[in-house]
Structure prediction request, 215 residues.
Amino acid sequence: MANETPRQQPPSQRTTDRYSAGAQTAPARTAQPPVSAETSASRRSRADGDLTRARILEAAGQLFAEQGYHNTTSKAVCTRAQTNLAAINYHFGSREGLYQAVVSAAMAHLVGLDYLRQLAGSTATAEEKLGLLIDGLVYSVIDERSWHPRIWAREILTPSPEHAQILRNETLPRGEIVMPILAELTGREVDDPTLLSALLGLIAPCMMLMLVNPA
Prediction:
């Protein structure tokens, strides 16, 4: 049985234990300094910036999924996000950086690295692990009508100019986790290229279905 994390005592209880039996009087609490106007403004600015970045990411995800990489302009993204062109450069560096962030968000949403690591490290058999992975992908594609699976589908079926960077940052780290599962299941070497082909063959029909019938 895993060790339980000790529960921390409430501050009031710790104070009572420490200063019980009249040993001494608990020190008065020191008043917290008031938050300056500059600090408050800085916090509001960061919060506003986070909201703007989230709006841009969501708008870009929708448009890239609907229209594809080449047909989606920065101006269209800004119009939908209700912001200006400078905001894309500020938060993402460029249109290319924005697209990479969109694909990264889609991959994290559909096949998170933490989930894959937990699955690979579980006591399930290789067949069970692969089944859980495929079930999760199919559920995401069929039951979740968001832009995330369509972004992934487009990038697989019609790679963008950013594909090499996406492959390096997003696909390969996941492949390093999944390939040993497939290798164990098939009896092949981990670096056998047919393993990746087999995995893509399993998910490609679902990706195509999302592209041609997104509603």
Observations:
- The CA atoms of residues 145 and 215 lie 7 Å apart.
- The two ends are 46 Å apart (CA to CA).
- The chain has ten helices and no strands.
